[in-house]
Amino acid sequence: MTEYLIRRVLQSVLVIFLITILTFLLIHAAPGGPTQVMLAPGLTPEIFEQQAKNLGLDQPIHIQYIHWIGDLLQGDLGYTFKNHIAISDLLWPRIGNTIILMGAAWLVSLLIAIPWGIYNSTKVYGLSDQTASFISYLGFAMPTFWFGILLQQWLSLKLDWFPLSDMHTRGKEDSIADLFMHLVLPVTVLALGFLASYMKYARASMLEVLDQDYIRTARAKGVKERKVVFRHALRNALIPIITILGLDLPILVGGAALTENVFNWPGMGRWFVEMATAREYSALMAVTIVTAVMVVIGNLLADILYVVVDPRVKLGKQGGKAA
Amino acid sequence: MAKKRKWWSGLLVLSLVGVLFTGCSTNNTAGSSTNAPAATTAPAESAAPEATEAPAADAPVDGGTLVTSSFSDIVNINPLLVNDTASGDVAQFVFAKLYNLDREGNVQAEDWSLAAALPEISEDGLTYTVKLKDTAKWSDGQPVVADDVIYTIETAKNKETGSPLISQYDKVKTVEKVDDHTVKFTMSQIYAPFLYALVQEIVPAHVLKDVKPTEMQKNPFGTDPAKTVTSGPWKWTAWKQGESHTMDADPNYWGTVKPHIAQVIYKIYADQNTEVQAIMKGDTDHISAIPVTQVEAVKADGKIDIIQKPGAQYEYVMFNFDGKNFPDNYGLFAGQKTRQAIAHALNRQGMVDNILKGIGALMNAPFLPDTWADPGDAAVNYDYNAETAKKLLAEDGWVAGKDGILTKDGHRFSFELQYNAGNSRREQVASVIQQNLKDVGIEVKPKAIDFAAWIDQNVTPGKFQALLLAWSLNTPDPDAESIFSSKYFPPAGQNSGWYKNEKLDKLWVDGYSTVDQAKRKEIYKEVGKEISTDLPYVFLYQYGQAIGTGPRVHWAEEDAPEPSLGYGQFFHAIKWWVTE
Description:
The complex is a heterodimer of chains A (323) and B (580).
Chain A: H1 2-29, H2 45-54, H3 61-73, H4 87-122, H5 127-141, H6 144-158, H7 176-210, H8 213-220, H9 225-248, H10 251-254, H11 257-262, H12 268-277, H13 281-309, E1 314-315, E2 321-322
Antiparallel strand pairs in A: 1-2
Helix pairs in contact in A: 1-13, 4-7, 5-7, 6-7, 7-9, 8-9, 9-13, 12-13
Chain B: H1 6-29, E1 65-70, H2 85-94, E2 100-101, E3 107-108, E4 120-121, E5 127-131, H3 146-157, H4 166-169, E6 172-179, E7 182-187, H5 194-197, H6 205-208, E8 234-240, E9 244-249, E10 263-268, H7 272-281, E11 286-290, H8 292-301, E12 305-307, E13 313-319, H9 336-345, H10 348-354, E14 360-362, H11 386-395, E15 399-400, E16 406-408, E17 411-412, E18 414-420, H12 424-438, E19 443-449, H13 451-459, E20 466-472, H14 481-484, H15 502-512, H16 517-534, E21 537-543, E22 546-549, E23 553-554, E24 577-578
Parallel strand pairs in B: 1-10, 1-11, 18-19, 18-20
Antiparallel strand pairs in B: 2-3, 4-5, 5-7, 6-7, 8-9, 9-10, 11-22, 12-22, 13-20, 13-21, 14-21, 15-16, 16-17, 23-24
C-alpha cells in the first residue's frame, strides 16, 4: 500500500508538471495581455508596451515559465501582473469561501440523494421514484443562474426571508447564523444540480446489485428484505458512488462561476473567470495547479476507499486494481 | 417484499421536504416576473432627485455610511496609473485634484481643489503659473507642495513609467518650482487642452521619489491602503479584494468644506444585474450605471431615484481605409458617397428610441451636443433615408448583383463589422446596422470578439474592415487629433482606420494652437463640417448610463450627480449626506 501510494504520488507530480507546461503555453497563446484594459483617447499602444516591459511580460515565454516554476518550487505562487498583489493573498481566501459553499451544497445533496436513490431502487416506478425522476430532470434542465435569480426575486426581494447576495451582512462578518442565512439560497440552487445526478447514480447502482444472483439467493433463503438491502447490497452499491464522489472532489475548490456571480459569492469560480478576462497568467496558473492537485487527490482517495469498501479489491503493483 | 418501515418513511419525508422546498419555489416564483410594468412618468432630466425622506434638503447631517457599487474591482488607484473606471472611482474619493470641473465642464479652483486660484496664462499662451493652497496636506500630515506637482508631471511624462497620462503632458517642456506653493509650466507649443490636463490628482513626492519609474506598477502605493498616502476628504482604509473598499472621512482633512458622510463603502458585484438587485434590496445606496434594459423595472419599484442624461461618450461605426484588409486590396469604403450612403441608411434615431430607450442624442461630428465646440448645423446631418442611400450608392458606381447584394468592379459589397462580445447594447446596434444596410443592398456580417483579444489583434494594429465602438471622453476639450490625424496611424497611434485627410490634419493643429475660445469654436465648426462630409466614422449618438440612488442619500440641488462629466456620478459627493 505504501509503495503504491509513493508511486502514485510521483506519477502525479510528473502529470502536474506536464499540465503546467501545457496550460502556460495555452494561456499565453490567448490574444491580448494583462496590460490592455481600457480604450480611451490618448491611451496609445506604446503605453501598454511599456507597462508590459515593466512587468517582465516582454521576455520570451520559456524564460517566463522558468521564472514561474522556479518561484513555485520555492512555494511562491507569484503576483498579479496588473497590480503586483501576491496570488496567495487572493487565492486562499477564495478557496475557503468556495469550500464553504460547495461543501455545504455537496453535503446537502448527498444526504438527500443517496438514501432517496437507494429507497427508490427498492420501489421502482413508485410515487417516490417518479417524484425523484421529475426532480432530477428539473435539476438537469434548469439553468442554475436562472433558478438562482428566481429564488432571489421570490425569497429575498419579495418575501425578505433571506439575504439577496454576498457571504455576510456588513458588520456581521463573524456571525455563523448570518453566514448560514446567506448560504441557504445558493446552496439550494447548487444542491438541486448535484441531487439530480447523485440520485440517479445511487438508484442505478443499487438496482444493478439487487439484480445479482447472491441477492436472489439471499431472498430465496428467506432473509428479511431490510437485511438483504443493508447487509448484502448496500456496500457493493456504494462502490461506484464512492468512485464518482472521488472524481467530483475538484468541484469543492473549483467553484461554480454562474452561481457565484448571481449570489455575489467571492469564490474561486467567479475569480477564475475574472482572472481569465484580465489575462492574469499567474492567477490562472495557480488555479490550474490547485485544481490538478485536487483531481489527483480525488482519484487517489477513490482508489483507497474502494479497497476499504470492497475486500475483493487489492491495490496491485502496477497501480491498477485486481478484482 | 418487506413492509415499509418507519425509518424509510422518515427519511423520505425529510427528503421530500427538502426537495419540495426547491420544487415549489420554482412554481411560485414564476409568477413574480421581473418585467414590471413601465413607469408612467419619467423624472425630469438632470433635475436633482428630491429627497424622499426627512430631513429636508437644506439640513445636512454628519455621519453615516454611503454604500456605492461597481461591477469590477480596481487595478491601481495610484493617479499616475489609473487606467480603468473602478480605480478612477475610488481615486475620486481619496485624492484631491489640482483643479476640478464645475457642472458645465469649466475648470475651477474649488474649495476642495489643491490650487488656490485659476492658473495665470502668459500673453503668448506658453506658460501656466499655478498657485497651491498653503493649507493642503497629505494624510500623513506632510504639506502638499510644488515638488509634488513637479514630481507627478515629470513621472507621468517619463516614457518608462508607462503612465496613461503621458499624452496629456507630452507638450510640457518644463515644470519649474517658483516657490514652495507655486509651479510654472512652460509648453513647447501653444496647446489649449492643457488647461484640462490640470484637472488631475497629484501624488506625494516624499513617498515615491525613490521609486524607479519602471518599478511604479509594482510599488504598493495605490494597491495597499496602508501604504497609500492620500490628500482627499476620505482615506482609503481597507480593500477586501473582489469584495469591497472602505474609505473613512479623514479627521485631518485640510479643506474648509468637510465631508458629511463618515464612511464610503465601494462594493464590488459580479455584474450589473446583481448590482441592480442589490440597490433594489437596499443593500447599496448608489449605482453608477443601471443597464437600459432594467431602468423601467427600477423605476416601477419606486424606491430608487434615477438620473438619466447622456454622458461624455459616443458610439460610432469606424471604416477602415487600408485596402489590405479587403479581398484583392479593394477597399470598400473608398468612395465618399458610399460612406454618406451608409450614414443615410442607418436608422440612428431608431437606435436611440428603441435600444437606448430615448436616452441619447444624435451626433454628426466628434463633439458632444450642447458643448461649446458643438458645430450644430454646420455639420451635415444624415437623416434616415434608404432611397437617398440607394441613389448615392448608384452614383458611386454600385449596381445590384444576382443575389441582390451590390457589386462594383466585380467586388460584392459585403463586409465584417466587429464589436466586443458581451456588450448587449452593441449586439443590438450591430443587428440593426445589419438590417438597415441589407435594405440598401449591403451585406454586413457582425462579429463579436473578446475585448482583450480584439484590441490586441484588430483595433491596435488597424486590422479589420469596419467596427462598432465608442469613445469615452476623459476631458471636456474638443481636441481629437490623436484619433483622426494621419500622424497617429497604427500601431503607435489610435487612428486605427488609417484615415487620411490633410485638411483635417491641419485643422486639428490649428484648433489647439490658440487659447482663444472664440477662435477655437470657429475652427471646430470647420472641423465639424469637413469630418461630417468626409465621414471617417458614421457618428451614431451620444449615450449615457442611468445613475440610481436609494432613499438614504441626499444632496442640495447644486450638488446632484452630473452624468455629462467623467466620474460625474460622484459630483460634489463631499457635500452629500445620508440618513438612516
